[in-house]
Amino acid sequence: MPSQIRIYTQKKQAEEWLRRYRSCLPVFACVLGFTETGLIPGISAAGRTPEDRKYTACADAEFLYYGAEHKPQYPLPPLAAGASPVLISRAVFESLKIPVHLFNAGLPQAPAVPLIDLGGTWAKCLSGGNAMEITTVHHLLKQGLLWGERLAANIQQGYLIIGECVVGGTTTALAILTGLGIEAAGKVNSSHPVCNHAQKWALVQAGLERMRGDGAMGRWGTLGPSAPPDPLKLVAAVGDPMQVVVAGMAIAASRSCGVLLAGGTQMLAVYALMSAIAQAYAFSWQPEQVVVGTTRWVAEDPTGATVDLALTFNKGSSTQIAATPPLLATALNFSDSRYPQLRAYEQGFVKEGMGAGAACIAAHLSQDWQQNQLLAAIEAQLERLSLVNY
């Protein structure tokens, strides 16, 4: 296996997946969404201010699709430190000519790029326990299933990478994981160098309490096998629109091709959601076809516990969750970069997003790219964007 890919859980299953898709080029689908949770001061570093964070997904989508030379309607937002992970994704997808499909699951404004509008809405802050209408969640699941099947139908021997852009999405991920009975408190990641666990947990507790109080989940009592929550009602209460789309997309695609869920905490939550939805609604899927791929900055984040979180799946109180997902990461390292914006990743800033880790895994897997090739391609993107003084 490529030395630049690290395996953290389910080693045998992960190695088999990597062998199966060695030398194959993937297709990339990126699902964009928004939650008003991302506007809370201090909740995320994916944009310096709440106003900046409203447009992060639009800016990332535009850069991913058009590249550095395009004059954007939505420029990449300034960050407290570092540079957008879309630079990493764009460097790989442009070099390897990997097809990119963008989906709007629910944004306040449409990005200035060709994309597929799924007819969703953005989510309200999860702390209210009423993030989305249940009808919207059902609609988005159907759209995810439909597009997962469509995308997979055009993949002969390869695999589908599914990425995301949701500012504040690690907090909604914590809410979904907790609601499904997985002990995730203190284990999720963030775009901050030191994860803001207390802030996230306070919001999640508020949202889950309001959900229970409003009867949105029926009679809860305790989170356990005797009363498993309806996963779609859980998303409607404390989730975001990306989660249910990606879950549906991955369930459908897994039936006929490989799936690489591109992200850390957020995609672990999606994996748990897939398991719960498949069981609650009797959907068939192929868990052995699905892996989660991220960056080592996420997998080895000293202020989170990503690997422990993945291993917690088969210890959870909910019978809806499948076994521990295979967790992979690129060994990409920016310590020797010429640019402080990239070296900031080594200090814990940014870490992941827009499928960055999975893009690198694809480059290692299909072309056997090494550290020096990846770094050169990413630095070239930064230079072309004239972000040296960013």
Protein architecture, described:
- The protein is of the alpha/beta class and 390 residues long.
- The chain has one domain: Nicotinate-nucleotide-dimethylbenzimidazole phosphoribosyltransferase (CobT), large domain (Rossmann fold), CATH 3.40.50.
- 41% of the residues lie in helices and 11% in strands.
- The protein contains 15 helices and eight strands.
- An eight-stranded mixed beta sheet has the order 1-8-7-6-5-2-3-4, sandwiched between helices.
- Helix 4 crosses helix 15 and helix 6 runs antiparallel to helix 8.
- It is globular.
- 58% of the residues are buried.
- About 3% of the residues have low confidence.
Key descriptive features of the protein:
globular; eight-stranded mixed beta sheet; Rossmann fold; alpha/beta
Describe this structure in a few short sentences.
The chain has helices at residues 11-20, 50-53, 56-66, 86-96, 134-153, 169-179, 197-213, 231-238, 241-253, 265-280, 296-299, 306-311, 340-343, 356-367, 371-384, and strands at residues 5-7, 27-33, 100-106, 116-117, 159-165, 258-262, 290-295, 327-330.
When the domains are counted, the total is 1
CATH class: Alpha Beta
Query: What kind of assembly state do the chains in view correspond to?
Result: single chain
What is the name of the CATH superfamily? Answer: Nicotinate-nucleotide-dimethylbenzimidazole phosphoribosyltransferase (CobT), large domain
Morphology: globular
| Integer average pLDDT | 91
SS-derived structural category: alpha/beta
Distance between the termini: 37 Å
Order of helices and strands: EHEHHHEEHEHHHHEHEHHEHHH
Number of helices: 15
Task: Please state roughly what percent of the residues sit in beta strands, choosing from under 5%, 5-15%, 15-25%, 25-35%, 35-45% or over 45%.
Answer: 5-15%
The percent range for helix content is 40-55%
Please give the order of strands in the largest beta sheet: 1-8-7-6-5-2-3-4
The total of beta strands comes to 8
Biggest β-sheet strands, sense, barrel = 8 strands, mixed
For the CA atoms, what is the radius of gyration? 19 Å
- Looking at the structure, the CATH topology is Rossmann fold
Instruction: Tell me what the CATH architecture is.
Output: 3-Layer(aba) Sandwich
- Low-pLDDT segments, ≥5 res: 216-226
